[in-house]
Every structure is written in structure tokens, then in C-alpha cells.
Amino acid sequence: MIEKVNPSHPDKVADRIAGAIVDLAYRLKENPKMAVEVLIGHGYCKIMMETSLSNETVSEHLQDIYDAVDRINGKATATEVLYTAQDEHLSKNQEDIIFQHRAAVAGVCDLFPAAVAGPLGAGHSQGALK
User: Fold this and answer.
1) Exposed, middle or buried by CB within 10 Å (0-12, 13-18, 19+), for 67?
2) Does residue 84 contact residue 36 with C-beta atoms inside 8 Å?
3) Which residues lie below 8 Å from residue 120, measured CB to CB, with a gap of 6+?
4) What is the pTM of this model?
5) Residue 124: pLDDT over 50
6) How many Å apart are CA 47 and CA 16, to the nearest integer?
7) Which of 68, 93, 97, 98 has the most CB atoms within 10 Å of its CB?
8) What is residue 5's predicted lDDT score, i.e. its pLDDT?
9) CA 47/CA 72 separation, integer angstroms
10) CA 80 – CA 30 distance, rounded (Å)
11) Strand 34-41 relative to strand 78-85, pairing
12) Distance CA 13, CA 73 (A)
């Protein structure tokens, strides 16, 4: 099944707003951890974020978030931003999963060097190990 929607569909607009917020986080901090949900419709936008950015940093850049919403969806949108610090337990859980994945990929590359000898294989293994 293929879903095609107009670029101005609220789901597409919400995705672009969330992407702009994540891009902002990467400009403010190296390798930030962030989860963003955007609900939009009927002239209203609600943004919920869980982030490794400090509350002070988010507060200092709220206007940048409001500007992104205005740029993407228009200035007639009432916007509310809710944010909280990232849950430490969940953060560590994800780090363990990423580490295990990287170790597994490295192990496969060590066991089957011929499988990653070509340009496609070499690119894949390098990307997975970054």
C-alpha cells in the first residue's frame, strides 16, 4: 500500500516542523538526543519534546522554534511548546542497543571480510560503525 498526500497535509507539515527542530538541536549541541512530536491542525500547533538539551538552552531558542513553525506553516498558527529533559534510563537503554548493534556489525565484518570487500559492502560497514 502506498500513501500519497499533498505536501500541505498536516502530517507532512508536522514532519517538516519536527525536522527543523531536530536540525536546530544539532546546531546547538553535538549529537543531541531528542524526541519531537508535533500535532497540527485548525490553526493550532502543539510541540512536545524530550531532549538532552538543557532547559535554559531550549528556553533561549523558543523563538527559533516559533519562527520555524511560522516559516513552514504560516504566521496564523498558534503554537505551544512543551519540553522536558530526556529520561536517563531510556537514554542509557538506547546507548546499549546502539553499542550492541555496532559490535554485531563489526563481528560480521570480521567473520566475512569478502562480503564487505566491494564498494557497496565497504561503504555499508563504514556507515554502520560510525
Assistant:
1) middle
2) no
3) none
4) 0.67
5) no
6) 12
7) 68
8) 75
9) 14
10) 26
11) unpaired
12) 7
